[in-house]
Design brief:
The protein is mostly helical. The chain contains five helices and no strands. 5% of the residues are buried.
Length: 87
């Protein structure tokens, strides 16, 4: 998924002659918009959950999708390798 997002941003950047970065929220909307709306409604109903939504989740949704999804992917790749292969 990360590679697809990098290619997507790269082709958009070439077409626009400017750097284009697709945020995680935009990717989520493309994949499954109703789940993002549902999550916003769940977090928006309680006072303390609304604070988490506003100050923790919404900023992350603005981060580049390839960066947010790529970091856990790299961790899983390196964690999944055998010790003999890492040497």
């Amino acid at each position: 998924m990360t590679l697809i997002l990098l290619i997507m941003d790269g082709t958009k950047s070439l077409a626009a002659s400017n750097v284009v970065i697709t945020g995680l929220g935009d990717v989520w909307i493309l994949v499954h918009e109703s789940s993002l709306i549902w999550l916003g409604q769940v977090f928006g109903q309680n006072g303390y959950l609304e604070i988490i939504w506003r100050y923790a989740i919404v900023p992350v949704l603005g981060w580049p999708g390839w960066a947010v999804l790529g970091l856990p992917g790299l961790v899983l790749v390196f964690h999944g390798q055998s010790k003999a292969r890492r040497r």
